[in-house]
Amino acid sequence: MNYVVVGSSAAGLSAIHAIRKLDPCGNITVVDEESRPAYSRVLLTHYIAGRVAERDLFLVEEAFYRSYGVRTLLGVRATGLDPGRRQLYLADGRVLDYDSLLVATGARAVVPSWSRTGGVTGLRTREDAVRIRNAALAGRRVVIVGGGPVGVKLACALLELGVTPTLLASSPRILSQVADREASLMLEQHLLRHGVRVRCGAEVGEVAAGPRGTEGVVLSDGSTVPCQLLVVCKGVEPRTELVAGHLAVRRGVLVDNGMRTSVPGVYAAGDVAESPDIWGEGTRVSAIWPHAVKQGKVAGTNMAGGRDLFPGVLPRNAMDVLGMPFVSMGLLHVPAAAGWRSVSRRRGNSYLRLVIRGESVVGAVLLGCPQLAGPIQAAIRKGGRGWEQLVPL
Amino acid sequence: MREIAGDILYVDLSERRAWREPVPHEDILKFLGGRGLNAHLLWKLTGPDTDPLGPESPLVFGTGLLSGTEAPCSGRTTVTCRSPATGWYLKTSGGGHWGGELKFAGIGYLVIKGKADHPVYLWIDDGRVEFRDARPIWGADVRQTDLAIKKEVGDGDIQVAVIGPAGERLVKFAGIMFSVYNTAARGGAGAAMGAKNLKAVAVRGTGALRAAQPARFHQAAAVCRRALLADSGGEGLARYGTSGSVEAVNELRAWAAYNFQRSRLDDVYAVSGQCLAERGYLKRRVACLACVFGCHRYTELTRGEFAGCYTGGPELETVGALGSGCGVSDPEAIIKANELCNVLGMDTISCGSVIAWAMECYEKGLISARDLDGLDLRWGDGRAVIEMVRRIAYRQGFGDVLAEGVRAAARHVGGDSYRWAMEAKGLEQSRVDTRSAKAYALAFAVNPRGPDHLHTETFAEFGLSPEGRALIARITGDEKYANPYLAEKRAEIVRWHEDCYAVTDALGFCAFSSTALYGVTPARMAELFSAATGHEISEEEIMRAGRRIVTLEKCFNVRAGAVRADDSLPWRLMHERTPDRPDADAINAPEELSRMLDEYYSLHGWDPETSWPTSQTLESLDLGDVGRQLAAVGKLG
Amino acid sequence: MEKFLVVYPDLCTGCRQCELACSYHHEGVYSPSLSRIRLVKFEDRCLNVPVVCSYCEKPPCEALCPTGAMSTVPEGPYALVREDRCIGCKECVHACPLGAVQLHPGSGVAMRCDLCRGDPACVKVCAAGAIRYEPLDAAVREKRRARATSLNPL
Amino acid sequence: MLSIGVDPARCTRCRRCEAVCEMTHGGDGQGGRSRVRIRDSGWPPISICRHCESAPCADACVSGAIRLDPVAGVVEIDVARCVGCWSCVMECPFAAIAMVDVAGQGARAYKCDGCREWGFPRCVAYCPTGALRAGAGAGEMSGRVRRQRAARVLPGRPTGGARA
């Protein structure tokens, strides 16, 4: 068997593990455009904060590929695909034959049009992180554009370095996608208390450049925030360009619970995949680490002839906001429809909200009381009944 | 093939070292497994002068090739060594579940060499070997040892092979007990283990066996299972166990009583399996691994003198040896004596046989009550038998003499006592009165370990079942030869059964699947072998492999000095007629035996002068290297 | 009429054919440790007790499973272990009062008798008739009869 | 594989497990170092790591700090690698992972280590009621239960060691 894995991050590596477990002899080839072995993108903010050394970013060493008998083509981009002939084309002109292919190309940062100038960076690669950390250590003023999880985590990291960043969120509150209103406000207060300048509802108009590079950012209301480095954290989008036109793609590459795409022999996993959610109600792209690991394992197992299923996407997030643990999961929006409601409890700095549909819990926000997160997640996965016993409200 | 056969685990007790080797594929194709591979290993690892109780003498445990699979009745384990009782070749086998457990641990063969400097037991946890101190349990009986080891290991589901106090004291007919009550009994394998200071081998196996062609194997096993369940003898075997056929054998005057002075017993019902069941001694049936019958018994005495006694058995041979052979017809005494033999770890056949011999000596005045420390060893006294069993195991008083086996005991007592020492080659004869079973007589005489029924069970000659009669017709051409009183065609019958039985043993099957009941035919065994190993073998080839095994076992004895005169029967059977059959043939006359042996040797292609296999025969069986070694010591026929 | 696996330990001879049939049916190999039905042997008393999931009305293994991996297919009811959900936490193993739930030694996933979806392989090979697939009332009738017989000396 | 089981119904809340764990792991006696927790309210009433075969916490760990030690059979945390991101806490259905300031470097994930150096979980050894149970593996656990249970089935008074 010829296995080709495109992308060697969480999903790709986990797939290699799974393949080798079932097929000790098959040929495995890994293609990744980064020239060094896989590293953890999730750790980048922790690297900036100085919690992990640069070398600890790497998920595996080169020896890993050797010990697993994996051929590595690092620093090479995959450019094209012929699913009919089961061939993958590489940028250097090489053609790889495969029996089964895993597309684990991941996601890229969303880049707004105004940001294509110097002094602006995203936070997706190791180089980005090094740049941001060096700028912060040099005492540069940093503005973070994006009030999502990555933006908030970066703000916390910079604060740990002794730099007080400005956080610009275009929505009326931070973490609007992953928290309810009350939690957002509590976290915003918490950040403000620690000195982070948070500005919500702030649209970026343009970058103000001077002779020595970026000098500030001009908001749509005309005000200017001075800074030397602008970090754009506007979320990510799946990198589907390799397979677009060959496979069914919505936001990400559409897969079933076995991580199979619309074309036989081709699988997708990780941030690039759009897979069914745990309620079986729709498909979702979920760019979180546990999903990538699990999806990679499922894909690898199925590629090697085994049988495994991905239970479905359950969106979730966990982070430490300056000593305040924040976890959210599942469906957070409560539509004004029959059967939907939410219950909440607030005691001091501890806040808990459950989203209930019918009799079942389908989503939760936990601030300052993270211990319940695991049991609640388990309850959501089991269908959501019996949550009353878990949480004395 | 490795997945079904398991590896060889070598253990050197002197050096406390253990290592594993896979079985070479060609060895499996040549010797099939179990008994066959054991013979091959023992041939390689010993020489003509190996001392059976010396540290250099290896003790080989071999699981059947199919042990651990669903092949019905395939759970038997063969133990092979140089016999401490006879000095000749010894293969002895036991049922139970130990062998299967070993197989699930990935090990098919266990070869034990050397001698530990103090009592130890082996703990094999899925192939990981530990030498554990057995000093605290040295002296414990079989049941206590089994429980103590399970407790120490902390797992009640493990399997343990144990020797009892008899094995520790090197009683020449001490056995190795598997799963508490299943014994590799004959020939003193327990003494061989005791001589190594090895109290037990405990095993836990959690692995899996995979047939090379799973669906085909499953199918073939199902065919065998159906055939066995349809056999006319199956139901009786399941319901009454082996002792269910006591009455039938008695009717044929082939049931040895009073140390073979009689060949039938008047009140035989009292010792039959039917009686055990009816009087409520029988509590339940017990089966070896993958068995469809469950012929093994569990009996308990809840009332009477021996209340509280419980044991596996008694089997037909036990009933014969400790019962009829000593004139005892009290089933409770037999059960109690059986329990003692089991927990002390002794062969019931030899044990009963030496006691019966002693009774005859006592009756004839060769030994006195003083020799016996006051014991009144009279025919039919169950309590005296029980006391004697204990004394033998612990080698107390005259028990010490009897513990050496009947041949040595007869030498000790002297006089004419050799005439009623029911042994040949030094092994006590099993319970068939061969004066009324001529194929048995031949089979007993040529058996490398001595006169018993487990070199080849020729049960078909009794003609007790339609399947048996059909088999005799197939071998000899005529059903009329299914008559145990006839001496004609016995060589053919014996040789077919020899081949078949060797295959049966090698694959791990029980005699009740192929040579006493007949569901597992050679063709079916060939099919199972092919599906299990992925190597096609025909019925003829597998029977030839059986003959190869038989021949190699013979060669072992030849190398050790055996000649034609060693293929013999106990004196009494050859010189005294049984009073229970007035007809002329009721004896194994030397001339008759000699005629049968001539036929048998020439059928095998062995030299009739010496009984040694010829180089031609050995070459034709792919045993050329064995032939060359025999030629080197001048023992090629 | 719903049928269940009913075991009659006093008839069991301990041959382990059930374990071998089960492991073959589910895994294609012969291995008691892969069997959903397990035999407990008390060898000194020659006692053999087959242990298998008894299909509790309120299965504790399902109640305590944190991921919903232990479940029952309603049409059987046949047990279903959703291997994709099982995390191998062993709650079910501890929860089962019979010891009838185990982990697969290879994959670490819970194993539980699924009645072979209505045609149990172990029943077919049990020559002693110690494992039967029968409606519960038949088992109760048998038990009542056995009990009555033991009370009556005739 | 270590296997730890919990039976809240048997728990008398004596908290001996917490005390033993605290001592074993060098705490100050205030319970801050205990890796097993008896809760006054909320769920679960007793929380302790089950050392799952495919542990969700290990799958979720972004820094590779949590892994299954195949030799000891325990799920263990490498504190030096942990970045305190709460992902594992979010995944554990038994609420068995806490964040504790271990070495003055901020909150790090903290949970039962199976008492590796002792060879057997001490809390289990000291639990007087059997609310905590443990075995070397799930096979051993189910095997023991099976045996104890089966010993009661027949009237034959098996001496075959229900506890052997």
The number of E-state strands of chain A comes to 26
Tell me roughly what share of residues is in helical segments of chain A.
Answer: 10-25%
Q: Roughly what fraction of the amino acids of chain A lie in strands?
A: 25-35%
Largest sheet of chain D: 2 strands, antiparallel
Span between N and C termini of chain D? Answer: 20 Å
Strands ordered across the widest β-sheet of chain A: 3-2-1-7-19
Quick one: overall form of chain D?
A: globular
Q: Could you give the order of the helices and strands of chain D?
A: EHEEHEEHEEHEH
Describe the main β-sheet of chain A briefly: 5 strands, parallel
Give the overall silhouette of chain A. globular
Oligomer: heterotetramer
Structural class of chain D: alpha+beta
Tally of distinct domains of chain D: 1
Class per helix and strand makeup of chain A: alpha/beta
Count of alpha/pi helices of chain D: 5
Average pLDDT of chain A = 91
Count of helical stretches of chain A: 9
CATH architecture of chain D: 2-Layer Sandwich
Work out the helicity level of chain D. 10-25%
Annotated CATH architecture of the largest domain in chain A: 3-Layer(bba) Sandwich
**Highest CATH level, the class of chain D:** Alpha Beta
SSE topology sketch:
The complex is a heterotetramer of chains A (393), B (637), C (154) and D (164).
Chain A: E1 2-6, H1 10-22, E2 27-32, H2 44-49, H3 62-67, E3 70-74, E4 78-82, E5 87-90, E6 95-97, E7 100-103, E8 107-109, E9 120-121, H4 126-137, E10 142-145, H5 149-161, E11 166-169, H6 181-193, E12 197-200, E13 204-210, E14 213-219, E15 224-226, E16 229-232, E17 236-238, E18 253-254, E19 266-268, E20 273-276, E21 283-285, H7 289-303, E22 316-321, E23 324-330, E24 340-347, E25 350-357, E26 360-367, H8 373-381, H9 387-390
Helix pairs in contact in A: 1-7
Chain B: H1 2-5, E1 7-12, E2 17-21, H2 25-31, H3 34-45, E3 59-63, E4 77-82, E5 89-94, H4 98-104, E6 107-113, E7 120-125, E8 128-133, H5 142-153, E9 159-162, H6 165-168, E10 176-178, E11 182-184, H7 189-195, E12 198-204, H8 214-230, H9 234-240, H10 246-251, H11 273-278, E13 282-286, E14 296-300, E15 310-312, H12 316-323, H13 331-344, H14 348-363, H15 382-393, H16 398-402, H17 406-413, E16 423-424, E17 427-428, H18 438-446, H19 466-476, H20 490-507, H21 511-514, H22 522-533, H23 539-559, H24 571-575, H25 590-604, H26 615-620, H27 624-632
Parallel strand pairs in B: 1-6, 7-12
Antiparallel strand pairs in B: 1-2, 3-4, 3-6, 4-5, 7-8, 9-10, 9-12, 10-11, 13-14, 14-15, 16-17
Helix pairs in contact in B: 2-3, 3-20, 3-23, 8-22, 12-13, 12-14, 13-15, 18-20, 18-25, 20-23, 20-25, 22-23
Chain C: E1 3-7, H1 17-27, E2 38-42, E3 47-51, H2 60-64, E4 70-73, E5 78-81, H3 91-95, E6 102-103, E7 110-111, H4 121-125, E8 131-135, H5 136-151
Antiparallel strand pairs in C: 1-8, 2-3, 4-5, 6-7
